[in-house]
């Protein structure tokens, strides 16, 4: 009997133990967690779909273009008649205020004035009184060249209109260094006339790639006179540029020639890391492409505004002698590169002699002002401040100090004579 009771007690103890842990470890008959794997699986699917939707929204947003009005105050169209052609220069402008400087930007080959959009915005955040002028060069953006006898349907042609009209009129493209430099100086003076400035503000020239060669040429020729404070060249030096020209055609042959949409064109620039900043790509890429009205490939109607292959005859003309001109031109000098390996021998010697300021952004690609707009803007503003003559307080000249001392001494002697005359008798001694 005692054995039975002991057995019953043991069984009771076991039953009690099982009942107390039943909420944690279900019995096979309860199936408390039978639905859990299904619920977890469904939850994972929901999370995945939501993340995918958010990713798609993010990708769509990163591929949506933004307009120039987000970065500049106004745009100008400046017409000009030359020998056989009529040009409508297109300019993005934010005028300077008070005595602020004017940063004049020139883009590289195949790009546009909007290549400096995000950088211009950052400059204004750091130095609100500064102005920014950024042009579309010939054959780029919305600048249009047509024969003299031909009329434009619009005084403010779009990118598509500019490209279509130029293609149909078959105007010979002149992108020589002399021509592009002349255009830049002309646009600066015409902007002054349009804005009613009595004189030009202090100017800092900034050029990227081909634009670096153009602004250096302008600085070397001294066409802006004392109004040119300084100039900055972005990611181009003569040696590496000449070397790169050897592989340029191969690069152009591997680049897509058409896109199904503008968004896909923006996406290609960011995914290929041609432009590493999505905001910059959204701002600048729409001016690099246009939609054909009668595309040869209906599924890919978006094509490049500028035919870079057609610019080949000018490639060497752009860069030969660039390093020497950069070092010899008057004014403050800044060279901003994406890597020190781009320095050639002449510039290395100049750097060791302290002839210019060198800044390197190793995290940026070729489009340094688009990849790193905030850092580029800070460097440019600091560069301007170092060269700002109005901020200098010069000591007086030695000759002026000596003349002032002599005048003070003479004035003191004259006062002493007057006092003696007043104290002495009128008939003297």
Task: Please describe the structure with a list of short key phrases separated by commas or semicolons.
429 residues, 45% helix, disordered C terminus, 3-stranded antiparallel β-sheet, Protein phosphatase methylesterase 1, protein methylesterase activity, alpha/beta
**What Rg is obtained from the alpha carbons, in whole angstroms?**
35 Å
Strand content: 5-15%
Structural class: alpha/beta
Shape assignment: globular
Which parts are unreliable, with pLDDT below 50 for 5 consecutive residues or more?
A: 1-34, 56-60, 423-429
| Main sheet properties | 9 strands, mixed
DSSP summary: helix tally: 16
Mean pLDDT: 84
How many strands in all?
12
- Give the H and E element order: HHEEEHEEHHEHEHHEHHEEHHEHEHHH
Distance between the amino and carboxyl termini: 161 Å
Helix content: 40-55%
Protein name: Protein phosphatase methylesterase 1
EC number: 3.1.1.-
Family: Belongs to the AB hydrolase superfamily.
Active site: 209, 235, 366
Walk me through the structure.
The chain has helices spanning 2-20, 36-62, 117-126, 159-169, 177-195, 210-221, 238-245, 248-254, 262-271, 278-284, 315-319, 322-328, 345-352, 368-371, 373-387, 398-423, and strands spanning 74-81, 85-94, 102-106, 131-136, 144-147, 203-208, 228-234, 258-259, 289-291, 302-304, 332-337, 357-360. The chain has 429 residues and is α/β, with parallel strands linked by helices. Strands 1, 2, 3, 4, 5, 6, 7, 11 and 12 form a nine-stranded mixed β-sheet that branches. Strands 8-10-9 form a three-stranded antiparallel β-sheet. Strand 6, helix 6 and strand 7 form a beta-alpha-beta unit. Helix 3 (117-126) crosses helix 15 (373-387) and helix 5 (177-195) crosses helix 6 (210-221). The longest helix has 27 residues, at 36-62. The protein is globular. The N and C termini lie far apart (161 Å). Residues 1-34, 56-60 and 423-429 have low confidence and may be disordered.
